[in-house]
Amino acid sequence: MKAFDYASPATVAEAVRLVGERPGAGFIAGGTDLLNLMKDGARSHDRIVDLNALPLGDVVQSGGVIRIGALARMADVAAHPAVRRSLPVVSQALLNSASPQVRNMAAIGGNLLQRTRCGYFRDAGSPCNKRQPGSGCPAIDGQNRGHAVLGGSDQCIAVHPSDFAVALLALDAVVLTRGPAGSRRIPLGDFHLLPGTTPDRENVLAHGEMIVAVEVPTTTMAAKSAYLKLRDRTTFEFAVVAVAAALDMRGSVVRDVRLAFGGIATKPWRSPEAEAALRGKAITDDTLAAAGQALVRGAVGRQGNAFKIDLVQRALAGHLRELGGVR
Ligand code: SF4
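# iron/sulfur cluster complex -> structure
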């Protein structure tokens, strides 16, 4: 690990200034991802600005939203009574993430910014367009079982690893930021970027801009939501396929639905097409098949990951039957 300066500011404004004024500076909160990347040589900073003294750890419900401070720990958010009651998909996504030790330490702002688990990205000895633009993407013809079938480019097919972001996306959450240019409210669907020709750029944050909170609307549908995560082992493992769903039923008919997916795409993946295929319909084999096909239209499978195209359709169907109480 390279040497770096360390600062622990007492205000958000000071934190923003300390990072914004130096191109090589970066923020740290829980540190559960950043420190591994720095030790592996996959990322380096010459100044680390520690956010943990800032008052950004509260979870507050008011005015039709739950506001979650960026420094709230994953375990605390998952266990918060308002989150469990009004946003069960968020609580479940967090509890299905990482390990108890990591959830006790990791902050939710950093969770949205965590880097991909692509093995080539984390191996500083491998070429990787995301880590070193222009060096190539060995995953496209190499080890790609964990990689994306949606949202990829010929530059990068790495999956976004966050479960929490997938749950937030299904509930139309908004990310609140502070940066050198002021404050912003960014819908989560606009926050993460597709790789395109710039896979090194993963979100819309400017240098020195930090997440201060996320706001999640507490709708009737959000209260009837759930997270399904399929993975190779039952703890401390990333999704092979994940489905976040919120459902509003009138009798046996889907009045409204929100669907977001993890494990299959280069960013948390919303599918308005699959939602449209379900809205106003009963949950049957035919409507579930139509929704699944709408979801995977345009998907690209490779030698290691093509199985996800079928698996995510099965996961969607099973999850909606369970959530809607339809056998
Ligand atoms: Fe790098 Fe993306 Fe290719 Fe993985 S998939 S090696 S992160 S460019």
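# post-check
The pocket of iron/sulfur cluster is lined by residues 116, 118, 120-121, 128-130, 137-139, 147, 156-158, 199 (CB under 6 Å).
The domain at 224-324 is CATH 3.30.390.50 (Enolase-like; domain 1).
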